[in-house]
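Appendix B: complex inputs.
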Amino acid sequence: MSFHSPWQSASYVQSIALIRSVLRPFGNLENRFIEYLTERQNQRVRRHLAGSPARSALLIMPRCLKQTHCRVDVQASMDQCRDCVLCPLGDIARLCERFGVRALVAFRSHIAFDLARRECPDLIIATACHDRLIKALRSVPEFPALLTPLSGMEKQCVNASIDLAWLEEQLAAATPTPTQSPVAAGAIPVGSTTCMCKGPPSGPHTAGNP
Ligand code: SF4
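Resulting structure:
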């Protein structure tokens, strides 16, 4: 069953951009509006999943969760993070292992979108700053994606944090029995799958700043 979202409509996207520009001068109102839109999105996704449970899920995390001085290439693999407690990626890696779900770190927005198009998971769980959440809703509206804003940040794009309780809740809901769940059984090995549902895979990825 395909996922339908108002973000697939150009007029909806334009109206959201207009509302954001009106709210922008008023302190935190624009972010509050984005959080409201995110919650609406999550409700849509949960309704969708009620009729079409996820057989595969993918976590897509931004690079700003990574501890600044860490040299591990988390874009290639988060295996080393499972034994590390220095940043939230360690908690995320352990949660994903527990629930049998793949987690990927994307260093740029377009890499995250390419990953989604290439892997075609039934469900995406992702976090980002407010502005990037809107970019995701606009850029890949065809994917059911549970979203949450980053819960804090030392400074712009540095040492960000995520609401781990929220993340665990989404994983638990999407994978009711961690070892035998449809998601765990259908988790897609990254980089080894060609998505046939939405055309040919996207081109090679390039690391850098968003
Ligand atoms: S969990 Fe540890 S190894 Fe992984 S990115 Fe953070 S600091 Fe680096």
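Confidence is low (pLDDT under 50) at residues 178-210.
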